Each structure stands twice: as structure tokens, then as C-alpha cells.
Amino acid sequence: MDIHFLFIQLFNGLVLGSFYILLSLGLTIIFGMLGVVNFAHGAIYMLGAYAAYTMVEVYSWNFWVALILSPLIVGLIGMLIESTLLRRLYDLPHFYNLLLTFGLMIFIEELIRIIYSPIAKPFSTPQDLLGSVDLGFMLFPKYRLFILGITTFFAIGIWVFLEKTKLGAIIRAGTDDSQMVDALGIDISKIFTLVFGMGAGLAGISGALAAPLQNIFPYMGMGILADTFVVVIIGGMGSIGGSILGGVIIGELITVGVIFWPPLANTLIYIFMAAILLIRPRGFFGRARFFE
Amino acid sequence: MSERKKLGFFIERWHFFLIIPLLIVLPFLTPHHSLASEMLIFAIFAMGYDILFGYTGLLSFGHAIFFGAGAYGSGLILIKFQAPLFIGLLGGIFLSLIIALIIGFLSVRRKGIYFVMVTLAFCQMFYFIAFKWTSLTGGDNGLHGVPRPSIGTFNLDSELHLYYFILILFAISLLLALRIVHSPFGRTLQSLKSNEDRAKSIGFNTDRFKLISFLISAFFGALAGGLYALHLNFVPLETLHIMTSGDVVIMSIIGGIGTLYGPIFGAMLLVYLKNLMSGWTEQWNFIMGILFITSVLTLRRGILVELKDRFFPKGSLWKGD
């Protein structure tokens, strides 16, 4: 086999893994704080892609403006969802909120289908990022390198935010015991809204970033949501390191798996998940008693 | 058996003896006979699902797998081997139970929401396999040409005959499900739901109980799936889609979980509604989304209980309520 091709696929695996990392980071911080598995996360990712599409392809705005605005818009929608709907169900068993987000997923997907039609839409790569870069041992598209850069930036940024800032400390405390944080005089409900908005914004930016790599369509979020669940099951829910490790592993398994066994590359990740469930049911970095 | 005990059998199951006569006339009340069949098929699916979700407290988003495996398994056996009807149905159930054993064994190791995610991921996997394995499953086009073999001289080609065949299986399923939930085993499942740690500390092997509950619900799901293949004469790929899992969840919630009769009612209501809006088939999923959100927000105890409480608050109908 061509070693050069293997290198390219390894890099592509990192790019695919980047999307899983951004999505599972959002999923994990929402879950850690609110105890909600956000089934609408894939639909929110799709919203990010459509927001960017509307700005760039419909109104011909600059791609960079779209990249900044779409996560903000999607984040605001997320905050609206949290403060009007999810909030009503916090006192009930966790699965009611999970079901609510499942309903939201269907609603958002169908709404976008009605507005934009179910037909897939092309999205062109931004002018500034066309072409390839010579990495010495291979050529690699600029845009994909940019995705790797932006994911690294966000992963480090979130870690610094959670570990080094006061707000981050409050969020970490809330993850362990939100009632106690509330009792200490911090308005936890505002933090909840903020965290949900942040998670949604991360999904929004990954949707906007993914748009130039594929055609966008209303149901693009479902497949990636299932993959992201596999990532957090493998990495361990509520752990940033787990999200990153899981994201890279799943991304590589899919892209490298395609070389060896094309029809079942996507099945490979579930077999890997099954193996992890057997050996280490909580995943690599999963904590015992964490929302179990 | 004394007279009193015999009577007790009927009194304890009065719901059952109330609804069976209603179901006998149902196909004459619906716009066409086959709609009644579809209502009963999903009622069987939701009834079995309730044993897992309502009684054991495990929310699975993977039950499309068992419905789909039942449908594909039965359909393939009936097509490829020209097998008798019951062999086809049993084959589908067998296939489903094997899959349920593997998935159940892996997923009951995780609790709560992790269980939901694991079952959903496996659902996506089976959808993907059926989608790609075109030579066996027909892929996106579905599995066409599922025959309806006669049972002896009883011909199932008429929709009405098929309905009464399904009704018999429904009645047997319901008696079986009632027997399960009211047995000591069923009580143990309910104890897992309310406090798993306590059940474990008393000495129950809770994982094993959860696995058996998972298998029971897969059994009902596969039976419903096999009947669905007969009903349509074809297996659509959508049977394995996550939305099918979502359908059975919402049927249970709307009907009221943990009551058996609730999910049966919810399933029949939803299938009927879907048919009623057949002019808007394209928008059905949009309506489902709205239904999902509103019922989780307002109808958590099931539509009948919520409506009764809204219009006849406690004590207004009879004292001591």
C-alpha cells in the first residue's frame, strides 16, 4: 500500500476527529453541568451549517463573518431553548429532558427541511483557504489544516477557561453539586443557560466548519450525533481528555478503516465501542457514580 | 378451582375482557381494515417496550433493532425458504433475541443515560448494516415480496383475516405481559426501577434481571416486526431507523408508562392519528416533533390521566378518589 496515502488518511482522520472533539466537548460540558444528554446536539450542528450557508451562499457575506456569527446565533438559540423548555424539567428524572431534546431534534430538522427543502446544498471552500500546503512529506489542503488549528485552539481554550477562570471554577463546582453552588449564593440558573449556550455554540461552529467539506442537508446531524455518542462512551462522559482521545480514535478508525475494509468502516467504531464496554465499561476517563 | 377463584381471574383482568370485544369490532370502525392491523402491531411493540421502560425503568433508543430484526428475519425466511408462517415469525424472533442478548449484555453494564446512548449507537449500526448489505436486505428500497402463507385452510390474504390473526396474537401477548408484570419477577423489575442499589443489596443480580427484561421487550418487538412484514408484504428500511425507536418511546409516554394499557392506547392513538393526517404525510415527522415536545412537557402521566385530572380534579367524580 502507498505509504503516502496512509499519511493523508491519518491526517484526514484527525480532521474528522476534530469535529467529534468539538461536538463531544459541547455535549460533555452540557451533560456535566445540567445532567442532560442533548439529543438535539446533531440538529444544532446542522443549524450551524445552515446559518453559515444562509450568510455565505444566499447573502454572499464573507466566510469569516459567517464563521463568527453562526456559532453566536446558534448559541443564542441554545440559550433560548434552555431557558424556555429544558428548565421546566430539571426536577424530574433525567430522561424526561433527554426525551425533550429528542423531540427538539425532530422539530429542528423538520423545520429546516420545510424552510430549505430536503435537497442537499453545496457549500464552497472559502477563497482564502483554497489550495494546499506542502508539509515536507505530503501536500495537505489548507482548509483542513485550518480546522485542525481551530479545534486545537478551542480545546485548549475550554481547558483554560474551565481550569483557570473563576467562571470555570463555578462550572466545575456545579458539575459536582449544583445545589450546593446555588446555596453558596451563585445564581446557578444563569450558569446553566450560559453553559448550554456554549455547548450549542461549539456544535454551531463545527457545523459551520463542516459545511465546506460536504453538501449540507437537514438530516446531516443524526449520523454524527450517533458517532459523537460513541466518542463519549469510549472517552468517558464529563471529561475533556476523554473527548479528545475518543474523538481522535474514532476519526482515525473511520478514515483508516476505509482503506482496509470500505463497506464496514462505519461499523468498525461500534465494534470498538463494544470492546471498550467489555473491558472498561466507563470508558477511558469515565468517573464512577457520575450521573449513573 | 373454586367458583370464587374463577371469577377472580376475570375480575383481575377486567380491562382485558373490556378491550377485546372492542378490538373485535375495531376494523369496522377504522377507514380500512389494514389500519386496524397496524394499530395492533404497534400496540404489541409498545406493550413489550413498556415492560422495559415503564416497569424496569430502562429507556432504550435501540428497540428499532428488534422490531427491524423481527421484520427482516421473518421476511427473509418467508421469502427465501417459502417457510410456514409460524416458522417465519419464530425465526424473526429468534434472530432478534440473539441480537438482544449481545446488545443487552453489553449495554446493561452502563446505567441511566449511558444505557440510552449505547442502545442508540447500536441502533445506528444496524441501520447502517441493513443499508449497506443491499444483496440481502434490498438496502434503501427495502425487502420486497414478503408472502403471507396460509395457516392450514385459514387464508391470510384478506386484510380482515390477517387482522383477526394479529388480534389472537395480541390477546396472547397481553395475557403474557400481564402475567409477567404481576409475577414476583415483575415486582422485582419494579423494585429495580425505584431503587436499584437496594434491590442489589437484598441479593438480586440486578444486571441479570435487566437483561431478561431487555430480552422480553425484544421478544414482543420482534413479534410486532414480523407481523409488520406480513401486514405490508414488505420491510421498509425505516423499521431499523432511530425514528422507529423514537416512535415507540413517544407512544409509551403519550399513553402513560408503567401501565401496559397506556402504551397500547398510545400506540393505537398515534398510528390512527398518522393515518388521519395521511394528506400531510410529508409533514408527519414535524407533527411528531411537536407532539414529542408537548407530551414530555405536559402529558407525562399519559394523556388519559392528564385529561381526567384537568377536567375532573381529584374528588370531583367520587369521594375518596
Oligomer: heterodimer
- Largest interface by residue count? A-B, 45 and 40 residues
Structural class of chain B comes to mainly alpha
Please indicate the count of domains of chain A.
1
Backbone shape of chain A: globular
Note the topology.
The complex is a heterodimer of chains A (292) and B (321).
Chain A: H1 3-34, H2 41-58, H3 63-84, H4 94-116, E1 132-134, E2 139-141, H5 142-164, H6 166-183, H7 188-210, H8 220-235, H9 240-260, H10 265-279
Antiparallel strand pairs in A: 1-2
Helix pairs in contact in A: 1-5, 1-7, 1-8, 1-9, 2-3, 2-4, 2-7, 2-8, 3-7, 5-6, 6-7, 8-9, 8-10, 9-10
Chain B: H1 3-12, H2 14-29, H3 33-55, H4 63-81, H5 85-107, H6 112-132, H7 134-137, E1 143-144, H8 159-181, H9 184-194, H10 196-202, H11 206-232, E2 234-235, H12 242-255, H13 261-276, H14 284-298, H15 303-311
Antiparallel strand pairs in B: 1-2
Helix pairs in contact in B: 2-8, 3-8, 3-11, 3-12, 3-13, 4-5, 4-11, 4-12, 5-11, 9-10, 9-11, 12-13, 12-14
Task: Give an account of the 3D structure.
The complex is a heterodimer of chains A (292) and B (321). By secondary structure, chain A is mainly alpha-helical. Helix content of chain A is 72%, strand content 2%. In chain A, α1 runs antiparallel to α7 and α5 packs across α6 (166-183). The termini of chain A are far apart. Chain B has 15 helices and two strands. The longest helix of chain B has 27 residues, at 206-232. The model of chain B has no long low-confidence stretch (mean pLDDT 88). Chain A binds chain B through residues 31, 37, 85, 88-89, 92, 94-96, 98-100, 102-111, 113-114, 222-223, 226, 229-230, 232-233, 237, 263-264, 266-267, 270, 273-274, 277-278, 281-282, 291-292, and chain B through 59, 61, 106-107, 109-114, 116-118, 120-125, 128-129, 132, 242-243, 246, 249-250, 253, 283, 285-286, 288-293, 296-297, 300.
Quick overview of this protein structure:
The complex is a heterodimer of chains A (292) and B (321). Helices cover 72% and strands 2% of the residues of chain A.
